[in-house]
Amino acid sequence: GNSVTQMEGPVTLSEEAFLTINCTYTATGYPSLFWYVQYPGEGLQLLLKATKADDKGSNKGFEATYRKETTSFHLEKGSVQVSDSAVYFCALRKGYNKLIFGAGTRLAVHP
Amino acid sequence: GAGVSQSPSNKVTEKGKDVELRCDPISGHTALYWYRQRLGQGLEFLIYFQGNSAPDKSGLPSDRFSAERTGESVSTLTIQRTQQEDSAVYLCASSFTQGGAGTDTQYFGPGTRLTVL
Questions:
Q1: Contact call for B110 and A51, based on CB within 8 A
Q2: Is residue A60 pLDDT above 80, yes or no?
Q3: A40 in B contact zone (CB under 8 Å)
């Protein structure tokens, strides 16, 4: 079946450090891939998405590239800020609209 | 404009009692979803409504769970005879899905935190 695996947290970084959160998926065909973010006390928000192989999604300095050969969609940011502290969820969508989520990775950025 | 709203934000109940959770989607959104997020885990799909079509109930964990939606408006998720393992955050999302293509962004509500004692 379809599934998403992402690296366990928490990830703790200093401000301006480079961030990578790994995400791999299992699915037949060509799912759409997403990163959602949940800031403290807020609802889940779409951060970025990619709908076909080799597409790069980007938003707020975050990037992720859809790699079909490695079935991955790793999230990266060159210089994190304290305000990026949140829980990040990788997800895929196959078919109509049902999303399948990873377990989430908590990111804590310290000044 | 208003986003997806859910009520109550927190619910504490005793084992065996029934609970109702409410979701108000974004006006005009045709699709509505319920997910469950257990502590430290990702979101699990529960049920999906699309317009007047029969809902996709494939994610409901047991027959104690049911959901209704009136047209393209409010939805209620009902859990009967609650158990401690039902404790979780229940999230609702809505989207404007065109032609079933499934390319539209889901907007999530803040969730209802359910605690079953």
A1: no
A2: yes
A3: no
| Cβ contact, residue pair B42, A95, below 8 Å | no
Contact B91 A32 (CB under 8 A): no
Reported as a single tens digit per residue, the pLDDT across B45-69 is: 999 998 888 899 999 999 999 999 9
Cβ neighbours of B116 (radius 10 Å): 19
Contacts of B54 (CB under 8 A, 6+ apart): none
> Is it the case that residue B116 has pLDDT exceeding 50?
yes
∠ at Cα A94 (A88, A97), nearest 5°?
80
Bridge-based pairing state of the strands A56-59 and A62-65: antiparallel
Q: What are phi and psi of B69, to 5 degrees?
A: -145, 135
pLDDT of residue B71: 78
